[in-house]
Amino acid sequence: MIKLKNLISESTWDRKFGEPLPILKDVMKKHNCDCGGSCCTVTEGPDEIRKSKKELQKLVKAESKLRDRMMKLEQVFLQDPTKGNDKLAKELNQSYKNHVTQFMRDVVSLVRKIKWLN
């Protein structure tokens, strides 16, 4: 039986107080093996791909609802006779295009790039 004291003292990473925790890239740099890289690659299996596509569908549905709400808010701005509200409506629409639409494009391209486990 291994004692907790031994587990704590047996560390694979020497880290001083205040140093950041190691990330995967740091660990992979330190890991030296003769396998040719087959044990060092990270890939996703078919289950993860299906899950990611299902989550993408949910995200697309939520984005559609968000877009509808944004359009309704834009129409409220445009119906108000106060000067300057048409500018606000254009800014709202432009902000949506620059941020949410770009995010959705990025997400779709990232989901398409998921690799199968060979």
Overview of the structural elements:
This protein has 118 residues and is mainly alpha-helical. The protein has a domain at 46-112. It is built from four helices and no strands. Helix 3 runs antiparallel to helix 4 (85-112).
Beta fraction:
under 5%
Number of helices: 4
Could you give the count of β-strands? Answer: 0
Could you give the order of the helices and strands? HHHH
Structural class estimated from helices and strands = mainly alpha
What is the global morphology?
A: elongated
Distance between the termini: 38 Å
Rounded average pLDDT? 78
Oligomer: single chain
- Portion of residues within helices: 55-70%
Rg: 25 Å
The largest sheet, given as strand count, sense and whether it forms a barrel, is:
none
Low-confidence stretches: none
List keywords for this structure.
118 residues; mainly alpha; 0% strand; elongated
Summarize the structure.
This protein is mainly alpha-helical and 118 residues long. Helices cover 64% and strands 0% of the residues. It has helices at 4-9, 24-30, 46-79, 85-112.
